């Protein structure tokens, strides 16, 4: 369950949870790709992210459907999974980079 969410520059979200460490989740690729997230390219609108459904969803107040319900939302479980995926990718990239450099370092070179 979500404790808090705050929009950051670059279409990122600072997210805190009741039962997990806080994380930064990037929605940059989704927003830039367009589709349902197209309207969030407006950074002022992106900054209006809020928690809904007792902490199980984040949503943006606009656009809305014919009944006035927000059309853009992300389930907390999906948001957590995306954040974990990004975290692993970021750290794996660093590890692979260090291993590659150590394997192909010229003889006698220092790290």
What do these coordinates show?
This protein is α+β, with helices and mostly antiparallel strands. It contains 3 helices and 6 strands, in the order E-E-E-H-H-E-E-E-H. The strands form 2 sheets. The protein has a 3-stranded antiparallel beta sheet with strand order 1-2-3, covered by helices on one side. A hairpin with a 3-residue loop joins strand 1 and strand 2. The termini are far apart.
Task: Outline the fold blueprint.
Layout: E1 2-8, E2 12-17, E3 23-26, H1 28-33, H2 43-46, E4 50-52, E5 57-64, E6 70-75, H3 76-103
Antiparallel strand pairs: 1-2, 2-3, 4-5, 5-6
Q: Tell me the radius of gyration.
A: 18 Å
What is the helical fraction, as a range of percent? 25-40%
Major β-sheet, in short?
A: 3 strands, antiparallel
Spatial order of the strands forming the largest sheet: 1-2-3
Average pLDDT: 89
Number of strands: 6
Number of helices: 3
Query: Which runs of at least 5 residues are low in confidence (pLDDT < 50)?
Result: none
């Amino acid at each position: 369950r979500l404790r808090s969410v705050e929009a950051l520059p670059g279409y990122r979200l600072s997210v805190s949870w009741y039962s997990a460490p806080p994380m930064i989740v990037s929605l940059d690729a989704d927003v830039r790709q367009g589709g349902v997230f197209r309207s969030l390219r407006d950074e002022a609108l992106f900054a209006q992210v809020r928690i809904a459904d007792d902490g199980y969803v984040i949503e943006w107040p606009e656009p809305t459907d014919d009944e006035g319900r927000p059309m853009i939302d992300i389930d907390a479980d999906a948001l957590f999974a995306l954040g974990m995926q990004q975290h692993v990718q970021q750290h794996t990239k660093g590890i692979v980079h260090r291993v590659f450099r150590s394997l192909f370092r010229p003889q006698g070179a220092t790290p």
